[in-house]
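Handoff note, outgoing to incoming analyst
You'll be picking up this chain. Sequence as last confirmed:
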Amino acid sequence: MRSYPTLEALLRVKEEFTRSVELEDVPYYRASQENAWFTKPQINHRIQCINDGLLQDSTMKEFIVSCKDTPQSKTIALIPSGNIPLSFASDLICILLAGHNALVKPSSKDSVFTAYFIELINRHLPNRVLLTSDRISSYDASIATGSDQAQPYFTRYFGNKPHVFRRNRRSVGILRGKESQSDFEKLAEDILRYHG
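Most recent structure output, in case you need it:
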């Protein structure tokens, strides 16, 4: 049977993350001081989404199987936005599962919770994720998420290497008149989660 050491380590991260919420050992107050939108319910919802979606054993195995064998580990720079707690979690988990390392420069609006999450990961996957507040210079590829106004900055500093730049996104919901109460509740959740 094939062994998945990174997957197994991330499952331990999930267990510790869950335990931290149960013990209320999450830096709620400091995170909300840094970003008033990061309330305890919003942070807990994000943790639940990460645990129930991204850190599922079957989901991670499926991702690993879909990855082509990488001849050499790369360093991927992550420059996340700060509008949602741990907005970069899916990118980070995919980077680690693909066998790469991450260099994360947190948003000034999510540095507390980001540092907490990375410390948790580093306990189980030492030396795979580095947190920096300095200008990023030594990396092989980058993933940057920000507003449309941040795109020229991303292009100037990170555009000379392989990259993914995410801009502002908008969504549209189409109602056909046959929606159930449950459909409206789910739509309201999507619209209002993280304060809209």
